[in-house]
Amino acid sequence: MGVEFKEIFVFVAGTTPQIITETIYALSQKNPPVYPNEIFIITTLTGKKSIEKSLIDEGVLDGIAREYAIPSIPVTESSFIIPRNSQNIEIDDIRSDEENELMGNVIMSLIRDKTQDSFSRLHCSIAGGRKTMSFYLGAVLQLFGRTQDRLYHVLVSPEFESNPSFFYKPKKNIVIEGRGVNGITVQLNTKDAVIELAELPFIRLRDKLSLQGKSFKDLVFEGQKEIDTAAIQPEIVINLSERTIYIGAALIEMVPVQIMIYTAFIKQKIHSCQHPERPYCLDCTDCYKVLTDFISEHAIEDMAGDYKHIYGNSQHRYIEFLAKWKGKIGIDVFRQNISKINRALIEQIEEATLLPYYLVNSVRQYGSSKYGVKIEKGKIRFE
Asked: How far apart are CA 60 and CA 40, in angstroms?
């Protein structure tokens, strides 16, 4: 037996309430039929008044529910989602950049919230409202939509489309007035109406991106950055016991001491991160260190542990390394090894555009040079 979902209908709508009833009708005709447990109508104050007058005050929703035995059509005051401006007033229309941004944020908040319940299923219709509203709904569903969520566009016979007297196809034929060629009034038979629900495929990025933004614009910026880093930066995988470093599918060969030092630089991306709450490093270099930090007593002991692991947890190698390096290694020797590490990377990474992310590089801060690696911390894996 499949999962029984809570069915949530989401509409973007303007002053054509018909798209709501047409979509409800089309979903009720599916096999098996889909009936709403919850309805949300994203609109403006003007749109709300038009929808309430046609669908509620004139009894259209009650009529379709009775005619097609729909258990309930739960449109209440809380069903209407209307953006509010900086004065906390519901907007009448979408005319400015600010109002467009408000609409995007409202749609983002609703979809993000309603997709938190794994036992809900969203049925989102982009047939109504301004084109920007349809865009926002489709785009937000790409960011948060799950396998079970659906995106639709309702298609209606041209002569019935936007007809103020046509809301759905009744079981018995009704003759209504419509506009024919050259705007001439004609008689239309509702039995001739065709309502189709086109299900629109969309890319689901929910489990592919880590999005923390509070606005739609923030989400787009974050998503683009994460996609860019995913496309550009292959994962780096370090396995000390096997003495291997993989960058994507490429095996990078280094001698044990260089593996140990390079591992120290990679580890600092995680252990010395100053902003663990940030999902991306981007251009941040706050984890970079001066070279004296890498040859401190504590740092040498940490590297000795990795050196021991490289040699199969050999205690002998651990003691040997400490005897040779602790309190004796100089910055010049460390720089020499950095040069050898970078040379190995340059020789073995074929794609030149990747090199800046994996080379040990330096930045000048407060009169001294600090060293690190640019790779995103989320692209690092130890085995």
From this structure: 17
